[in-house]
Specification:
Elements (H helix, E strand, L loop, with lengths): L2 E6 L5 H13 L2 E5 L3 H7 L5 E4 L14 E4 L19 E3 L6 H16 L2 H9 L16 E5 L3 H12 L4 E6 L11 E4 L3 H5 L4 E4 L13 H4 L7 E4 L8 H9 L5 E4 L19 E3 L10 H19 L15
Parallel strand pairs: 1-2, 1-3, 3-4, 4-5, 6-7, 6-9, 7-8, 9-10, 10-11, 11-12
């Protein structure tokens, strides 16, 4: 085969590049690493394959494109058919690269909430030496995980290892869940899966089906001692209802790595919400080396399959969104 592979991925190491270049060379693929926007504009039209973080608005100019390999797991920005000069473009994501880093972020924030760290931060910021009393543990807890893909499963495995008593998995398919889940619920039965949960972990992608999935009514089903963590998409959660629940003490705490909008404006009331841990969508970025390695390995495997005309993995079903 002949063609050009365009790459916009600043996280690549020299080893990553050597691995990609080895298979490209064996299959007569030229490689171009985009250096800036002008470079991208000038050469994107020649690319048969694009890998990394490609601005969606540039895709109309990618007239030769046959495969877009997105370096992220979420691909909602690439779902519109109007984006592509060629509507038959294969779209793949990097689901499977982020389970380690995001599950560790969930464990970190869950422990912080259960051990009342937002409250202790306020106490120490006031230069006070005060015990706030009872804390709680992952050990013996009931946890509802909404979204049982790579990220949700990776977290469930870690929570089970830390002694969680009962882990419920909520998903849209009928597949059998891994053994780290004690119960399986369809999305239609989410209300039942929320009842009695000590912690609710949201790991869903941004699709029409997940929009406002966690409504004000569903937040009202949680216990006063419940905590909620969202590492999926901000659109899946009623933020106003969450702020009301936190500020009024109807739930014990929350952690959001995703919000609506992003970036969050400096004057947004989320910044001042009680018992809320906010991070700027960093739980799954490329700052952890293993994430970069896994992402590149997924692309390397699919590039080999593409060149050999073998079935590819992680192809996104655009009508579903992942």
């Amino acid at each position: 085969m002949t063609g050009t592979l365009g790459i916009k991925a600043e996280f690549l190491t020299s080893k990553h590049k050597r691995d990609i270049e080895r298979i490209a060379l064996a299959n007569h693929l030229k490689i171009h690493y985009f250096t800036d926007e002008a470079d991208l504009d000038a050469l994107i039209g020649q690319c048969e394959i694009l890998y990394g973080y490609i601005p969606p608005e540039k895709l109309r100019a990618a007239e030769s494109l046959r495969w877009l390999a997105c370096a992220s797991s979420g691909v909602e920005q690439y779902l519109g058919e109007y984006l592509y000069a060629n509507p038959g473009v294969i779209l793949t994501n990097s689901a499977g690269a982020y389970g380690i880093t995001i599950s560790e972020h969930i464990v970190m924030t869950l422990l912080m909430l259960l051990r009342r760290m937002p409250e202790y931060n306020a106490v120490t910021a006031a230069h006070q030496w005060e015990s706030l009393g009872r804390i709680r543990s992952i050990y013996g807890s009931v946890i509802t995980v909404i979204g049982t893909g790579d990220i949700g499963t990776a977290f469930a495995q870690r929570a089970k290892a830390l002694g969680a008593a009962h882990i419920r998995g909520v998903h849209r398919s009928n597949r059998v869940l891994p053994r780290c889940f004690d119960e399986s619920y369809a999305v239609e039965d989410l209300d039942f899966a929320l009842a009695g949960a000590d912690a609710v972990i949201m790991c869903v992608p941004g699709t029409k089906e997940t929009e406002n999935l966690m409504t004000r009514e569903r937040l009202g089903l949680l216990k006063k001692t419940s905590v909620l963590i969202n590492v999926g998409r901000g659109s899946s959660l009623d933020q106003d209802a969450l702020m009301d629940a936190l500020n009024s003490g109807k739930i014990a705490g929350a952690a959001l790595d995703v919000t609506t909008p992003e970036p969050l404006p400096a004057d947004h009331p989320l910044w001042n919400t009680k018992n809320l841990i906010l991070t700027p969508h960093v739980s799954g970025n490329m700052t952890l080396d293993i994430t970069c390695d896994l992402d590149v390995n997924l692309f390397f495997d699919n590039l080999t399959r593409y060149c050999r005309k073998q079935p590819m993995k992680h192809i996104v079903e655009r009508s579903v969104g992942y």
